[in-house]
Automatic annotation (TrEMBL):
Pfam families: NAD_binding_5. This is Inositol-3-phosphate synthase. It comes from the Eukaryota. Signal peptide: none annotated. PANTHER family: MYO-INOSITOL-1 PHOSPHATE SYNTHASE. It comes from Rotaria socialis.
Length: 146
């Protein structure tokens, strides 16, 4: 059946830290996540861009990175995630990616492309009622060369 995270072994969610001792000398421990303001892992919202419109479940299968049994567990949830259209600069990306580039923002200047991405971030933040957005760049940052 469906499993839910318990965070056993999670440093931020299940660990305690020694705060000190009381007047009787007994050690006092408090949850680690109470000493610093931390986001609970269940409150993380994931989104992103890709030049291919395949949902994340399909992309995971195509990439062949995860073990098949793990893919089967992840696919129902990941298939609900669809990437936003992305920027495609053919001179920056390997030529073998051109065939899968079917999820693109309208071609504009680089400044217009940047503003499009910024607007996507603002919309994502507003639609998900988020205080903060953290963007992780997980693609290659080097121009493709033959």
């Amino acid at each position: 059946g469906e499993q839910f995270p318990n965070y056993y072994g999670s440093l931020t969610q299940s660990t305690t830290i020694r705060l000190g001792s009381n007047t009787e000398g007994k050690e006092i421990h408090i949850p680690f996540n109470t000493i610093l303001p931390m986001l609970h892992p269940n409150d993380i919202v994931i989104g992103g861009w890709d030049i291919n419109r395949a949902n994340i479940g399909e992309a995971m299968e195509r990439a062949c990175v995860f073990d098949y049994a793990l893919q089967e567990k992840l696919k129902p949830k990941l298939s609900k995630l669809k990437p936003l259209p992305s920027i495609y600069y053919p001179d920056f990306i390997a030529a073998n990616q051109e065939d899968r580039a079917n999820n693109l923002i309208p071609k504009g200047t680089k400044q217009q492309d940047l503003e499009h991405l910024r607007n996507d971030i603002r919309t994502f933040k507003r639609n998900n009622n988020l205080e903060k957005v953290i963007v992780l760049w997980t693609a290659n940052t080097e121009r493709y060369t033959d």
